[in-house]
Hints:
Blueprint: H1 17-40, H2 44-51, H3 53-74, H4 81-99, H5 107-133
Amino acid sequence: MNPSNAELRVPSAGGSTLDLYAAGLSTLCLIHCLALPFAATLLPLAAHFAESELVHKILVILAAPASLWVVRMVWSTEGSGLFIGAALTGLGLLLLGAFVGPLEAYEEPITIAGASLLAFAHLWRWLRHRSRRE
């Protein structure tokens, strides 16, 4: 294909591309929480990365806009209440785990629950959207 004739594809506002992006970020957060502690026993650098508060905050800051954008897009869509509730609850748990200091002792389970809920909400919406198109 000639690059000069290639179309620039921009995801439509109603598309599910943002769901995949948001689910991917939530999954990345989940991998960070579950896999890096195991790697931390093997690599001192991974231990530092696994415990870095900055990493948690950055991941939440990256995930929040995509999730909120999708929630905003589907706010008035019929049958989206379960998705909106799960996505906002998951995002809220991620924010609590990353930014609320007094909950530091419970940060890991709160973050794992939030990332899982947010990822499953976006994947569920993406699967619903995909099945309607087929």
